[in-house]
Each structure stands twice: as C-alpha cells, then as structure tokens.
Automatic annotation (TrEMBL):
The keyword Glycosyltransferase applies. Its EC number is 2.4.1.-. It comes from Oryza nivara. The keyword Glycosyltransferase applies. This is Glycosyltransferase. PANTHER family: GLYCOSYLTRANSFERASE, OS09G0379400 PROTEIN. Coiled coil: none annotated.
Length: 494
C-alpha cells in the first residue's frame, strides 16, 4: 500500500469508515480536508462493494485501498453496507461480520510505506483500533454523532434515567430527568435512545455499545463533527471533567471541507438540480425532505408523509423529497397529484449541494447528525423528526438548545420504540410552519430559528476558515497524535 500523491515530509493518515453512508460521507470529507490543507497524505480503506461510492466522494489524490471480504463471508451473503439492512436490529451481527476484514487491514497497515502515522477508524470497527495499537499505530475514534449525544449516552449508561422515570408510577411519559452536570437538560423517556430507555437494557445492541466505548476509551482521540460555537460547552466538559474517553477534537462541520461549493457537479446536471434552479428562477422557496439512509420507513408512515406534503403543497409549500430507493410506495397517484409543486427523487442525491441551493429554505429531517450539521452549515432551519438511534438527542440539541428548528411532534409510544405513525395533518402543519418561519430569504426576515441558523452558519464558516477553531483543532490533532514519517521531519504546523 502506498499513499497516492505521497509527499515525503507529510505524515501518512489512514482512514477507515464504518460501512454506512452516514459514517462514510463525513470521513470522505475529512480525507479531502487533510489533503487540501496539506496536512497529510491519506489512504482511505474501503471494501469492493463500497469503493465506487467512496471514489465518487473523494478527491483524486486520496488513495483508496479495497479490503475484500474473505470468500466464506461473501458466500454467506453479507451485505457490504448498513443501508441493505433496513433496520438497526441486525446491526450487531453486521458489525461482527465486518470484523472478517481484520486480517486484511493488519497486512495492509503493516506493509504501508510510508508507515501509517495515524489511523482514523470508526468506533464501530472496534477491532481496527486494537489492530493498529498492536502495530504501534496511534488511533483516533470517530462515532459520527455530536458531543452532546455522546455525553448524554454516557450519562444515561451511568445514571439509568429510564429506571427513575419509570419507577415514578403513572405519568412516566411526562416525567423528566435533570442531567446532573447540565441541569438545564431535562430528558424524557422519548429523548432516551432505544434500548437505553428501558430500566434494564440488555442484548446485542448493549454488547455492541460496550465494545464501541471500549474502542473509544482505548484510542488516542475522538473526532467530533462539530464546532466551538455550536457545542463548545460540551466539548470543554468532555475534555476537562469527563473521563469516559480520550480528548475530543471538534473539527467540523466536515461538509465545509469542500469550501461550501458542493461535492462536485457531474458533467450532466441532475434533474433535481434543474428543478431547484427553476424554482429559484420563479422566486419559490423549497422544503427539502430527507429522512435518513440507515432505516427503512414503514409504508403506512411513508403514505402519511406523502399525504402531509400533498396538503402542504396545496397550501403553497413546494418540496423536494429524497426517498430511499426501497421506500418506493408513496401511495397511488401521489407524484402526479403534486406535479409542479413537489419532486420525488429515488436516487442518491448530493444533499449538501441541495441544502446550499438558494431556494431551499427548510429541511424536514430525521436528525441524523450529518443532516443536522449540514442544515446548520447551509443556514437552513430544520423540522426535527428523530426516528431512531441517537436522533432524539440530536433533536434536543438542535431545537431546544441551538434553537435552529422546530419539532415534529411524535406520539410517545412511537418515540419510545413502539408502533404508531405521525399523521399527515401533523406533517402538513409542521411543513407550513417551518416554511413560514423560514421567511423570505436564506437567513432573512423569518422567525427566531431562521435568524439563529443564519448566525450559526456564519460561525461554522469562521470555524473552518484559516485560524478558526476547527481549523486549528485539526492541525493540532495531527501534530499531537500522528507519528512522523520514519526518517522524515513532520511538516511544521503554521
Ligand atoms: O441521497 C442522499 C442521502 C444521504 N446523503 C448524505 O448521507 C449522509 C447521511 O447521514 P445522516 O444524515 O447522519 O443520516 P443517516 O445515514 O441515517 O445517519 C446514521 O449515522 C449518523 C451519524 O452517526 C447518526 O447520527 C444517525 O442517527 C444514523 O442513522 C449525509 O451526509 C447526507 O448529506 C446524500 O448526500 N445523499
């Protein structure tokens, strides 16, 4: 393995993302950032099934090394990415299957010339941290989420608020748990991610969680896709008072690695981009709707979303809805009925480019952390509709603390892991509220959330600009953690 575009004086950073789009995309941004800033040569590990996607996201001077699954794993039909799973419950088995890549990683790391000075590996690839440590390569963990959710997850494991909330008898749904370190944070049962919202959580997800935390605790640093103006108090708390893991490095928003110009435009402009251009030319504002890559949405819920958007469109809200290709059943005749007002896209879109389009003024999002941080960085207020994983905590941060969005009210039974749907009338109402609040122009005139998000977006740009907090954090992280190339002196930091 040799790093492309190798420049002898630069340290060699290897990056190994977990095989989920929400984990891979920000890591590709990090790879490009390290190269563009001349901080390191970069090797990016992937698998044959994921490599075409990864190459499409990366600059040419990032080397991609494919680690193939051993034959027996492929023969068992192992999917190469989480998006093929449809729910989070086979996740622990998927994570275990992926550990079949370990011998290949070890051979590649040991043979790398110049030697690898730092491995940035997803915490889900917990074994990769152990492999690197055995070879004397320092590691930085990446988890994909923000600092707030990371701290809250640790607090939840420590204090088991679900037990306290449920032991109070009736009214558990309305009861709140004040987080000792941050008494302004009041967790309800619906805010606590499944399965931590049960008094005695156990099972494969808990076992996986323990492995992730062990990997984080054993690594030399933790990368967080955030920035000081957004989460400075939580990063400071983690680095000063919290003992659950190594130093956190807030180096985001990573989507701004591309300088805010989007991740490249192919030769042919996609249909959705042309549609947005037409909307802009007609002076229309557009609501962007995307509910995540990792989890399938039940058909009944999809049809409620469709009904809600149709009603919102009838009331003047134009929308672009990016659906997972498998979430295809939106109800008979929906697309015909909304034609002109709404567009549905069933392919991979460049979400970051969409969010930056001048006419996109609101984002109905599941609050996956990348989507949330991209919305903020693009100055687009959010309607937060958490659907699983740590998303309820992201929604708390975005709506209650940063005040850059509104909430989609979700029935508690559904929010705590049970069945149910959010009705079309609720979706229509939130869509209209968000777009009214977003006002007449990006960051202009609208409600509090629109003003706040405009201000935070400009602070995000300051953070990644030369001399900004994230700019400095990345430089310092590489200088602090990365072993210099043998026989070479590391490039002096500016
Ligand atoms: O057509 C698409 C779909 C997605 N994206 C990008 O893919 C990423 C998706 O990430 P995210 O918004 O975080 O959604 P998920 O992939 O659903 O997120 C998973 O990973 C996140 C990071 O760990 C967690 O916060 C979530 O809870 C978890 O579901 C973002 O960068 C999007 O811009 C596109 O560019 N085009």
């Amino acid at each position: 393995m040799a790093a492309a575009g190798h420049d002898v004086q630069l340290p060699h950073v290897a990056i190994f993302p977990f095989m989920a789009r929400g984990h891979t995309v920000p890591m590709t941004h990090l790879a490009c950032l390290l190269r563009r800033r001349g901080l390191a040569t970069v090797t990016f590990f992937s698998t044959p099934g994921n490599a075409p996607f990864v190459r499409g996201q990366l600059d040419d001077d990032v080397a991609v090394v494919e680690l193939p699954f051993p034959d027996h794993v492929v023969a068992r039909g192992a999917a190469e990415c989480v998006e093929a799973l449809d729910s989070l419950f086979p996740l622990p088995a998927f994570v275990e299957a992926v550990s079949a890549l370990r011998p290949g990683l070890e051979v590649s790391l040991a043979a790398a010339r110049p030697r690898v000075g730092l491995l940035v590996a997803d915490a889900f690839l917990h074994w990769a941290h152990a492999s690197a440590a055995a070879l004397g390569v320092p590691t930085v963990a990446f988890l994909g989420g923000n600092m707030f959710a990371t701290i809250m997850r640790d607090v939840i494991l420590r204090d088991n608020p679900a037990a306290a909330l449920l032991s109070g008898g009736g009214g558990a749904e309305a009861a709140t748990f004040a987080v000792p370190e941050f008494p302004h944070v009041h967790l309800t049962l619906a805010d606590i991610p499944v399965p931590f919202n049960r008094p005695s959580p156990e099972g494969p997800i808990m076992e996986l969680n323990a492995k992730l935390w062990k990997a984080i605790a054993g690594s030399n640093g933790l990368i967080v896709n955030t920035f000081d103006a957004m989460e400075g108090r939580y990063v400071e708390h983690w680095n000063r008072d919290h003992r659950a893991g190594p130093r956190a490095w807030p180096i985001g928003p990573l989507c701004l690695a591309h300088g805010g110009t989007g991740t490249g435009t192919g030769a042919v402009e996609p249909s959705w981009m042309k549609w947005l251009d037409e909307k802009a030319a007609a002076g229309r504002a557009v609501l962007y709707v995307a509910l995540g890559t990792a989890m399938a949405i039940p058909d009944a819920q999809l049809r409620e979303v469709a009904g809600g958007l149709e009603a919102a469109a009838a009331a003047g809200v134009d929308f672009l809805w990016a659906v997972r290709p498998s979430d295809a059943d939106l109800g008979a005749g929906f697309e015909e009925r909304v034609e002109g007002r709404g567009m549905v896209v069933r392919e991979w879109v460049d979400q970051w480019r969409i969010l930056q389009h001048g006419c996109v003024r609101g984002f109905l999002s599941h609050c996956g952390w990348n989507s949330a941080v991209e919305g903020v960085a693009a100055g687009v207020p959010l309607a937060a509709w958490p659907m699983g994983a740590e998303q309820p905590l992201n929604a708390m941060l975005v709506v209650d603390e940063l005040r850059v969005g509104v909430r989609v009210p979700v029935p508690t039974a559904m929010a705590t892991g049970g069945h149910g749907v959010v009705g079309s009338e609720v979706i229509a109402r939130v869509a209209r509220e968000l777009m009214m609040m977003a006002g007449e122009g990006k960051g202009g005139g609208g409600g509090e959330a629109a003003r706040n998000v405009a201000s935070l977006a400009s602070k995000a740009r300051e953070a990644v600009a030369e001399g900004g907090s994230s700019w400095k954090a990345l430089e310092e992280m590489v200088a602090t953690l990365c072993r210099p190339v043998e026989g070479d002196t590391p490039k002096p930091t500016k």
